[in-house]
């Protein structure tokens, strides 16, 4: 489909109210009772894996695991709090992304990985700052501490530099050699960084790419926004690119359960396939916003809104991220061992 046609269709589609009028909390509770129940049975045989969250030291732990200068976490996010929320929500495993509050000091996350190696996978933070040690600072957490992913935050690159500079290419290429996925945090919107991402994917096609938080794309309201969404969908031509359906309360224009994201999920799955889409909560922000369990349940509500097949939902809720990190959640339930239907 041509870009212009897709955008026109999208703008029309996104303007349709899924549930006319405002939904009260009571209405949302009724929806949850009616809409989640068909899926809970289908997910009961599969592990639920959260592909994107953070942890950081509590104020009491900060003497041992200090925050980066000028960084003060706005909400609680310590390990004990995460474990409590995982148990309540029925989440079996998670990918922990190094938080900005500890910047390049990975010691707090590393301690959690060592305590719970069957629950957690670590994603380190790439250091592209001047000095020439960025590649080594990437390799050390991976080769010594068992991190299995790395995050590129373009805001950390020196002023005027792009992610396609010498250190960016070196880390991206080495990540492919080590079978370490590279996540992209595009807080200013993926459209701004699309040329860099496409260049890296073209030059180093063996490197797995994770697009965090739908590329920070909200439901398009105009043609310009629709074109950026089309660019995201067009990344599906690179077979190693995956999309995180994560940070929903931020990319949605609505309150819980973020039903305006249903058309986006539908088109992302249609373009990439469910086996290249994964849910992520962005805990602990999600816990503060709507509750961790509710953040998981929102995906089920959204999926039901578009009549997503249970097999696709199973991929999104855990199988996709599990296949990226084989032998990690080795006690995965039977559902992860079936071939994709």
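^ Assign residues to that structure.
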């Amino acid at each position: 489909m041509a870009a212009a046609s897709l955008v026109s269709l999208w703008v029309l589609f996104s303007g349709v109210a899924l549930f006319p009028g405002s939904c009260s909390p009571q209405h949302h509770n009724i929806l949850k009772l009616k809409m989640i129940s068909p899926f809970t049975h289908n997910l009961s045989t599969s592990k639920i894996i959260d592909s994107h969250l953070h942890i950081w030291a509590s104020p009491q732990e900060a003497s041992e695991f200090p925050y980066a200068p000028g960084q003060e976490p706005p909400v609680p996010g310590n390990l004990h709090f995460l474990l409590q929320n995982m148990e309540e929500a029925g989440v079996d495993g998670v990918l922990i992304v190094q938080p900005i509050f500890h910047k390049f000091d990975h010691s707090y996350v590393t301690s959690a990985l060592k305590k719970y190696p069957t629950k957690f996978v670590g994603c380190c933070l790439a250091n592209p700052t001047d000095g020439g040690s960025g590649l080594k600072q990437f390799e050390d957490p991976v080769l010594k501490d068992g991190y299995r992913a790395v995050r590129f935050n373009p805001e950390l690159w020196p002023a005027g530099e792009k992610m396609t500079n010498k250190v960016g290419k070196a880390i991206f290429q080495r990540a492919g050699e080590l079978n370490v996925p590279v996540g992209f945090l595009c807080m200013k919107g993926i459209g701004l960084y699309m040329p860099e991402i496409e260049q890296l994917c073209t030059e180093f096609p063996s490197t797995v790419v994770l697009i965090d938080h739908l590329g920070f794309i909200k439901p398009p309201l105009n043609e310009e926004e629709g074109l950026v969404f089309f660019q995201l969908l067009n990344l599906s031509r690179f077979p190693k690119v995956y999309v995180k359906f994560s940070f929903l309360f931020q990319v949605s224009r609505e309150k819980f359960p973020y039903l305006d994201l249903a058309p986006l999920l539908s088109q992302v799955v249609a373009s990439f396939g469910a086996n290249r889409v994964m849910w992520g909560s962005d805990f602990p922000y999600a816990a503060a916003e709507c509750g961790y369990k509710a953040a998981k349940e929102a995906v089920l509500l959204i999926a039901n809104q578009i009549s997503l097949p249970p097999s696709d939902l199973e991929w999104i809720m855990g199988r996709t991220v599990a296949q990226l990190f084989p032998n990690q959640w080795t006690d995965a339930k039977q559902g992860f061992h079936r071939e994709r239907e």
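The first strand starts at residue 49 and ends at 53.
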